[in-house]
Design goal:
The complex is a heterodimer of chains A (363) and B (311). Chain A has 363 residues and is α+β, with helices and mostly antiparallel strands. Chain A is built from eight helices and 21 strands. Chain B is flat. The chains are: A alpha+beta (363), B mainly alpha (311).
């Protein structure tokens, strides 16, 4: 079973505080959607509103064109995996999974068949008679997912389900979730503040900030063509370099000048842009390290971060502005060296004072 | 203390040599000083009287002498004393009346008042407030309620033109009257214990249950009650221990009457030891009470524990 989900003009207030402000979003059937944003941006609240655990103050939510925001959680045909797993501690794994089906009067045979199938998919048949207290964090996670699967819901909701797992298990479970999505072909909504989870799992990412949606798009579009300065800064590690700059629109493509006179020729068409203050943005992998004097600017090396396949080089320009560049894994640059920084004009971004982004034409 | 952390062994240097000489897990006898005050009072006020009571129960003793060793004589006399057997039955009857009522009403109140409204907070305080009263005040209040002709109960029954049941003087109702006063007095503690247990249940389990289509009854039966099972056992054991020691209410409301029908074991002990000055027999009755409470509490514990293992 799968479903498309339509969220129209939804708002949510807690007392005087607005948590979500007139938010609309269409989720297609079988889509894996990730709500990504910093703590307190309202992403979990939105998920809980879809689940029915929070009321909708205004606007409406529909699943398969049927309005569901007035229905109790159990009647919406969705399943949710909680951050804390929320397993029933006094019930065995089997009973945890059967509870939802028993409550709607499902026959024993169907219930058992579904539990056994879910246990087979999640490789946890040997855990069925145990209590949650006897399981590890990863196993509890599986049970929580199993409890969702047996309900054969129209959509799965995940509320930061990986954040309580250790790093290795998190990576493994992430891959398993992706496989599970391919296998079940269900609509899935996943809430996280971890951009790696968002990038690896999502068909489309919904980047949220400060009560609003900043951008909706496939992971690479979010990464390469961020719609706002917030998205550009939030997605990607290390964060995108930002430099205050003035714009020169005399040629077809925009040229920007930093305060200390450094100038960068971008491939962003300037004819649509207006004069004024802009922020120049570029990711560290688009700043090449070259011998001093051969790049757009020279910087002193502050810190090196060796990641194995590449080395992040934290440099400081003459005016103290920090720029992070990227070099090969066995880079011979050392702290204190003066290096040249070559900015890739095709991968440059400009952000107006209102936060709007301008990118080079796609090649 | 099986898994003490192992100190890393480093090359000997001035600091590591000094650090190695201090074993923070070695017993330090001066720590005994910290528990000594407690041990002193525990021994003198609990252990010694307990053992002394046992010793007394095997002797013919009054206040002036601790007489001769009589073996099980006091116990044999006890079990031939109809008044004692009556008092044992009375106590069991009282425990049977009060403990389940206290546990169930306490649970019911806690379930009703486990919300964050001002009304709930006021009602919680109100229901708990009776617990702070002394037994004298409690029995006085309930005597006023039960008093024939002019009492609150009589007045209310009077409005409907009927006669109120005589809770203090009717032999079949007197113990029930005492039980009502006791439940009113003691309901605060079970309610508070249940409330704190209910507030320990994580909210997300309820949210999961809501998504699992559980209605209110299914949620109560499958989520709430199993989650507070331990507290239920605790409340029952605590109340058994407390209610077996009934004394004040019976003494002040009925003096054990009518016809010894509300005389509990403690009142019997008091009568025997301090009014008839038969300390040996009073001590023997105390030991019986001690054993009864022990058995009742243990039985309750064992029954519920076995049940819990099977599920």
């Amino acid at each position: 079973m799968t479903a498309d989900i339509e969220i129209r003009n939804v708002s949510k207030h807690f007392g005087a505080m607005t948590v979500l402000d007139d938010l609309s979003l269409s989720i297609k059937a079988r889509e894996f959607i990730v709500f990504l944003g910093p703590s307190g941006c309202g992403k979990s609240t939105l998920l809980r509103m879809i689940a029915g655990l929070e009321t909708v103050d205004s606007g409406e939510i529909a699943i398969n064109n049927e309005r569901i925001d007035h229905l109790p959680p159990g009647r919406r045909g969705i399943a949710m995996v909680f951050q804390s797993y929320a397993l029933y501690p006094h019930m065995s794994v089997r009973d945890n999974m059967a509870f939802g089906l028993d409550n709607i009067g499902m026959s024993r045979e169907v219930t058992d068949a579904r539990i056994n199938e879910a246990a087979r998919i999640l490789e946890m048949a040997h855990l069925l008679e145990r209590k949650p207290g006897q399981l590890s964090g990863g196993q509890r996670q599986r049970v929580a997912i199993g409890r969702a699967i047996v309900k054969e819901p129209k959509a799965f909701l995940f509320d930061e389900p990986l954040s309580n797992l250790d790093a290795a298990l998190r990576t493994r479970t992430r891959i398993e979730l992706a496989q599970l999505h391919q296998r079940l072909q269900s609509t899935m909504i996943f809430v996280t503040h971890d951009q790696v989870e968002a990038m690896t799992l999502a068909d489309r990412i919904v980047v949220m900030n400060n009560r609003r949606i900043e951008q909706i798009g496939p992971p690479m579009e979010i990464y390469e063509r961020p719609a706002t300065k917030f998205v550009a800064g939030f997605v990607g590690a290390p964060a995108m370099n930002f430099v205050e700059a003035t714009l020169d629109r005399s040629s077809r493509n925009a040229t920007v000048r930093f305060a200390d006179g450094v100038s960068v020729q971008t491939e962003i068409a300037s004819n649509q842009m207006t004069d004024g203050k802009y922020t120049f943005g570029i990711r560290s992998e688009d700043v090449r390290i070259v011998p001093a004097g051969q790049g757009n600017a020279d910087g002193m090396v502050d810190v090196l971060e060796r990641l194995g396949e590449r080395t992040l080089i934290y440099t400081r320009l003459g005016n103290g502005q920090q720029i992070v560049g990227s070099d090969v894994g066995n880079s011979r640059v050392a702290v204190g060296h003066k290096v040249g920084l070559a900015f890739d004009g095709q991968k440059s971004h400009l952000f107006s004072e209102t936060g709007r982004a301008w990118h080079a034409k796609e090649v | 203390m099986g898994d003490r952390p192992v100190m890393p062994r480093t090359a000997p240097s001035a600091t590591s040599v000094r650090a190695a000489s201090v074993d923070i897990y070695a017993p330090q006898w001066r720590n005994f000083i910290f528990v000594a005050p407690f041990l002193f009072f525990f021994t003198t006020l609990l252990l010694v009287p307990l053992l002394w009571g046992m010793w007394l129960s095997f002797h013919k003793a009054d206040t002036f002498s601790s007489g001769n060793f009589v073996g099980l004589g006091n116990y044999i006399r006890l079990f031939h004393d109809k008044e004692f057997l009556q008092s044992v039955w009375n106590t069991f009857y009282f425990v049977l009346l009060t403990v389940p009522t206290l546990a169930l009403i306490g649970l019911f109140l806690a379930l009703c008042l486990n919300r964050r409204t001002r009304t709930a907070a006021v009602l919680r305080t109100l229901f708990f407030s009776s617990s702070v009263l002394s037994v004298t005040i409690v029995t006085l209040i309930w005597r006023i309620v039960f008093i024939p002709n002019v009492g609150l109960l009589s007045t209310i029954y009077g409005w409907f033109g009927s006669t109120a049941p005589a809770f203090i003087s009717d032999p079949s109702l007197a113990m029930i009257g005492i039980a009502i006063a006791t439940v009113w007095w003691c309901i605060g503690l079970p309610m508070m214990l249940f409330l704190s247990a209910l507030q320990q249940i994580p909210q997300d389990i309820y949210e999961a249950a809501a998504l699992d289509n559980a209605n209110r009854w299914q949620t109560l039966r499958s989520i709430t009650l199993p989650s507070i099972k331990r507290t239920f056992i605790l409340v029952v054991i605590v109340q058994i221990v407390l209610q077996f020691q009934l004394f004040g209410q019976a003494w002040l409301m009925t003096r054990g009457g009518p016809n010894n029908l509300t005389k509990p074991i403690v009142l019997y002990i008091y009568d025997t030891a301090f009014r008839r000055w038969d300390l040996g027999m009073g001590a023997a009755a105390s030991e019986i009470l001690f054993i009864l409470i022990l058995i009742a509490a243990m039985a309750q514990y064992l029954v519920t524990r076995n049940k819990a293992d099977r599920t």
